[in-house]
Each structure stands twice: as structure tokens, then as C-alpha cells.
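Re: weekly structure request thread

Next one in the queue (513 aa):
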Amino acid sequence: MRILEKVYDVPVGVSALEKTSCLKNITPVDKLRWHKFNVLLLTFLSYASYHMARKPTSVVKNVLHQNCTNLTPDEGVNITGIEDTWCSWSPFDGDDASTLLGALDSAFLFSYAFGMYLTGSLGERINVRYFLSIGMMFSGLFGFLFGLAYWTNIHSLAYFIIVQVLAGLFQSTGWPGCVAAVGNWFGKSKRGLIMGIWRAHHSIGNIAGSLIAGAFVEYSWGLSFAVPAAIIFSLGLLTFFFLVPDPRAVGCPVPVHNLELTPNAEEIVATENGSNKIDDKDSISVSRSTSTSSSHKEKEQAISFWRAVRIPGVMEYSFSLFFTKLINYTFLYWLPTYLKDSSDTLGSQDAANLSILFDIGGIFGGILAGLLSDLTGMSAFTCAGYFILTIPSLFLYREFGGVSPALNISLLFLVGFLANGPYALITTAVSADLGTHPDLKGSTRALATVTAIIDGTGSIGAAVGPLIAGALSDLENGWDYLFYALMVASALGLLLLTRLMINEAKAKCKKNN
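Done, posted below.
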């Protein structure tokens, strides 16, 4: 089947644009810039929509299980014996509600983690455009099915678990696909900064998901799922018609890590008059990429899981990401609940809106992490600095976040800024660099596998964090225990980078000498 082949076809939408004045008569330089921008924009929107679609669960928790004592039921509704829980949604209306809601998160996240290892290999073998668009449309479908329970009065725990498991599998297509597409177009120059800015899609998606879900949560929580589902489904169609995941499909230069270069090959550019050059050290010539594409395609071999694991740094960053995603996903899925529980005045919508400050901080933290990595060339040290500062920020937020609204806002922004730095850097620039490591000897199809291994391992941590939060949140002083656990996770993430930091320090000293 064509869909199961690694082909370099031109999407219908782009093919139509190439026949119009939009792309028909532009120079190779402008064509390259246009396609790079197009890939960045589409993958940004795509992965933002993935995160937007998974955010409603954390917002809706506050109405699936709530204290109904101060609420008034509709006339004729008998609440005898269930005065505290009559307004909650069965099966999340019992004393074990937090545990069940934590299990709901983990069903999605463990499925997502399993899917990451599977889809990483598939992403090397399947056209990324098909891979992403199918994943997005099915993610939208299962998001809608979760919301459908509201209108069809479904109260089966098995139904919610099955929907979450299937949603997690299809959501796992997003990250390997997006990173592979961007990695195919961009070389290593300023990769940390470019991907640090691009990586803001994670936080933008969370913010959009919080605001959209929060807008409907108090009167029709089904729409909290249905609206994001419709958006990601629509963007899946847009991706199918316009994403060009490989430069060779449209005759554009390929980044230097994708082909073996001859001396000065980056200076050769084929144009109509043979005189124009692309001043871009990350790219080689159109003619070079075109003439070698067939031979290069023969050299491309999808690497094995075990070969990818043996790439230096993959395991360290994978397990470090385990702990940073544990921290981030605990906030992603439980922050609105924590905010509502720790305040006497916040409603479900207010808690959802306030929680976006964590993601706003994360945007700036991720960009700075990428910039620092570019300036120093020391990704492990950059991550370590963030891990160190995250520990006191978590302590300060737990101890003083409730003192005043201003302090809550400031400290929540700070925690998001620091917690998201390693997350952003490891899942983008580091993954892309390792996926094009010299040890792979020219294999350009390793990127999806390396990305999937790193993010898949991190996603196990993402599943463990919310599960721990669900188990601890109902205990006396449970929130204190949870914050202490997050501090320990940050310390462990730091320790795992020790060997890489030593290697970076040695390399820096050798370079300076």
C-alpha cells in the first residue's frame, strides 16, 4: 500500500499552490524559506492541537467529582443520603474518586508511552504526512467520544478507560511525526533556539485547552471535549493537504546531516541561470539533493530499537525526561484540582484559567533553555541548571502560593518557567541532535526512533506522576507529600545527567585549549 511506504509525494494543497503565482515563479531561496515556514507553522499547530485535545480531562475533573453540599438540586430531585455527591458524575462520585480519576489519566498516559515506542518505528517507515493526519483525526474522534458520555448519560468506568487507552495510542503519533518533519528541514545551526521557540506549541496547546474546556465546564462539560476534538480533526485535514515532511518532495535542499557532503557542496545551487546561491550552512544544493536522492534513498535504513538505544546520551536523556515529564504532567493533569482545593473562592472555570500561568511560564522557560543551549553548546548543563532551580521553586510555591493572589500568580509562573526548561530542550533540540548523531553514519531515518525512545520513556514518568497525585491528594497533608515527591524527582533528573555534564565539561576544556 502506498500509505505504508516511505514516499516523497507532494500534497494536493501544495501542488495547487505551485501552479499559482504563489509559488510558481519564486526563487529557490524564497521557495526554501516558504516551505520551512510552512513546516514550522503546520507542525506547531498540529502539536498544539494534540496538547489542547488532552487538556480537558484535567479541567473536567472538578465537575466529575465535586462537593455538592452548597449546591441546590433541580426541583423534584431526591438527594437523600447523597447530599455531598449528588452533583458528581458516576462512577466518580465515591470516596475513591481521586484514585479513579488518577487511573483515568494513567490509562491514557501508559497507552501513550507504549504507543511512543511503536509509533517511532512506524514514523520511519510511513509518510509523515499520513502518519500525522491520521493520528490527529482519530485523536479528535476519541476526544469526542469522551464528551459524548455527557449527552448520552454514560457512567461506565470501562467506557472511559477504553476511550482513554485508544486516545493515548493515537496521540502518540504526534511527537515523533512533528520532530521528524522539522528535523528533515532544519540543520543544527541555532537548532536549540529555533526549536525552543517552536516548542512553545506544547504550552500554547495547554493554554488553549484550558481556556476552551474552562469555558464550557460548568454548564456542559461534553463541549469541553467536543470543541477541541473538532479543532484537532480539522487541523488533521489541513496537515494532510499541506504538510511537506521532506524537502526532496518539492526539490528543496536537504540539511547537511541528511546527506554526505563533498567539499563546498553547500555552495552549489541549481537555478535557472546557474548563478544564485543559498547562503545557508544548514543546506546543500537543490541539484545535489535531487541527483543524490535516489542513491541516498537506497542508503536509508530504518534503524533498530537497540541500535538507537546505544547512541551515546539517549539513555541518560530518556530517564532524565522520565522525571521532568513526571513533574510537568502532574501539573498538567492536577493543577486545576489543586488550585480549587487550596482555595475557598475559586470555581472550576477560574481554576482552569489560573492554571494557564504554568504554561505561560513554560513558554519563556523553553525559549531561554534553547537559547542557552545554543550559546554554550552544553545541553546537559543547561538542563541541570533548570533542575536545580526547580526544587526551591516547588517548595516556595507550596508554602507561599496561598498567601496572596499576586504571590500565587508569580510563583506559579516561576515554577512553569523552570519545570518546562529541561522538558522543552530534551524533547526538541537534544532529540533532534541525537537522531542525527555521527554514530549513525548517514542514517537519516533514525530521528523518529530516537525521539520515540526518549519521549516514550519520559511518557512513562508522565503516567506515573498523575497516578501518584491521585493516590496522595485525598490523604491528610497529601498535597505536601506530592510536592516533596516532585522535588525528589527534580533531584533525580539532575543526577542522571552527571556523566553527560562531565563529558561536556571535558569537551569544553579541550576546545578552549
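The chain has 20 helices and no strands. Confidence is low (pLDDT under 50) at residues 1-5, 258-299.
Next request, please.
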